[in-house]
Amino acid sequence: YNKMGDLLRAMGQGDAARRHYEKDLEIAERLARAEPERADFQTDLVASLVRMADVEPERATEHLTRALNILRDLDAQGRPAPDKAGWLPGLSLRLAQAHLANGAFDAATDTLAALLALGAERVPAPVRVTAFFLEGEVLSRTRRLREGLQAFRRGLELAQAVEDLHLVAEGYFRTGNAHFWLKDYENARLALLAAASLHEDQGVFEQYSVCYQLLVLLSLEVGRRADARAFLEQARAVLERAPEGSGRDALEEMTSLVSAERHLDGRE
């Protein structure tokens, strides 16, 4: 049932996939109840619950919470499957993201704290980096901007230490954005320029354009119209030569920059 569900889902037949996943979940629950001492049946149940979270986003936190509790119980009993060591931190991160998306900030904080408490030996560096970023987002969205900035910095420093350039770029963007909201414009400018440079190198033009939108807004905020115009032209020069399907899409998202340019010209 799960393989057929995967196939149907890949074909875009979500409802049919969900019905197959429901059948798979019924079987997994029955086996797990019949032989609770078997860790493999428990992890099969976890996999089934995760699939249900994929096709029932409105119940994602319910399915993921149940799946995570099973993994935590196995871990507490010293029965985790050796080939599934990454499941506990990975699922913890996904549940925290789901809580954050739902605005359940306390639940997200608790889940992230439990994840980071597992320690560096058990949680891969990219997962820890993302956990710090999510922690910063929770703090920022609950108006603790300076604490959020510190969390973003912890994530950025770890990303730099393990030389994960994708996460380094995200870290610079997040710290730059935090500095922007704290009105620390010079540090915001430096961080956003670093993020934009890395995004350009990686061909992530959508994020590149967002960095430059903030740089334009930042320049306008401090009255540096010449800088704003220069940033606008730099962004256009890069995005106009971006590949079809990425750069073109990014150009579509640059309406705010056009508006900013009109403001510079005194036309609004």
Order of helices and strands: HHHHHHHHHHHHHH
Coarse morphology: elongated
Radius of gyration: 22 Å
- Span of the ends, CA to CA: 59 Å
* Classification by helices and strands: mainly alpha
Average pLDDT: 88
Largest sheet geometry? none
Unreliable residue stretches: none
Q: What share of the residues does DSSP label as strand, in percent?
A: under 5%
* Helical content band: over 70%
Q: Number of DSSP helices?
A: 14
How many β-strand runs? 0
Ordered list of secondary-structure elements with their pairings:
Blueprint: H1 2-10, H2 14-34, H3 39-55, H4 60-76, H5 87-101, H6 105-117, H7 125-141, H8 145-161, H9 165-181, H10 185-202, H11 205-221, H12 225-240, H13 247-252, H14 255-265
